[in-house]
Prior knowledge:
alpha+beta; 2 domains; 7-stranded antiparallel β-sheet; Hydantoinase; S-Me-THD_C_sf; S-Me-THD_N
Amino acid sequence: MGADCSALARGAAVLGTGGGGDPYIGRLLAEAAVREHGAVPVVQVEDLPDDAVVLNVAMIGAPTVMVEKLPSGAQFAEAIRSLATHLGVTPTHVACIEVGGVNSTSPIVAAAELGLPLVDGDGMGRAFPEVQMVLPTLSGISATPMALADEKGNTAVFATVDNRWAERLARTATVEMGCSAITAQYAMSGAELKQSYVRGSLSLSVAIGEALVDARAANEDPVVAVAAVLGGTVVFEGKVADVERKTVTGFARGTARIAGSGSDTGLEAVLRFQNEHLLVEVAGSVRTTTPDLIVTLDAETGEPITTEGLRFGARVRIVTAPADPRWHTPAGLALAGPRYFGYDTPAVRHDGTVSEGEHA
Length: 360
């Protein structure tokens, strides 16, 4: 992983559904690490030895904060070293726990500095705001022990009774660390990773990024190109009329209202987010909810727009796309469905139908 950091960051920002941190920052950090340490080898999930020791690294906190409080490159490797020392293991691979924004490229930084290969997969197939919201949780894999590292050199290691407690304690510590930190978590074997991970996430990110750029070069519609790679649908087009956003308990929470244009003239879409887009309403009706993907793209260029990047007057198109099928099981919906976030609605899939997990 080296020359295609740009395509990876762009595509991962799409899969990040508005969250995961600023992809531009992640790209710059990854490219700097590759220049200093060399390209990072990428390993397919099915090629991992069952006894591999895999550690995940990611940013935790509010993406809005990272815009002004940049992580240092050393934080990513330091979090992994701290966790490996606590566990008494020597890691053999680095992986992404979520594919989205900076959290798709930050593992490149750690892998480059540590001289380790990177796994082509992730624990979600998208981005979610809380530590326990990963497919490994559904497989019974513990998030802890987990390490946190801030830009000042502080580190902490947590051991918790379950993954939801890992979220609660890590979020509290992250707020004290300035509302953003780097975490190493979900240490697992190669066998456990094969059972619980989404395969090919980094490759898919690169494919999305390349499709977007290629469509523009060919004077084709980049938004349609992105939707095609995702297997998704363009559900709304319009101009951002209002954004209400605030950083609360380590999250960027808010609502954006989109005034329709083109075929959607006279209609309004409402986006509701907590780091990531979790629900979109069109003309007062719920159109799609978490766990399926809700992606906001620049109407002309197709570039993904993060929740912290939404601005009044921006012309956008909203794309929805399917999530990994495991998210639509009853256990998956209990972990990351709309009701978990306080929305009084069943989970609505990208095609507008109610998730089958609601009826199981």
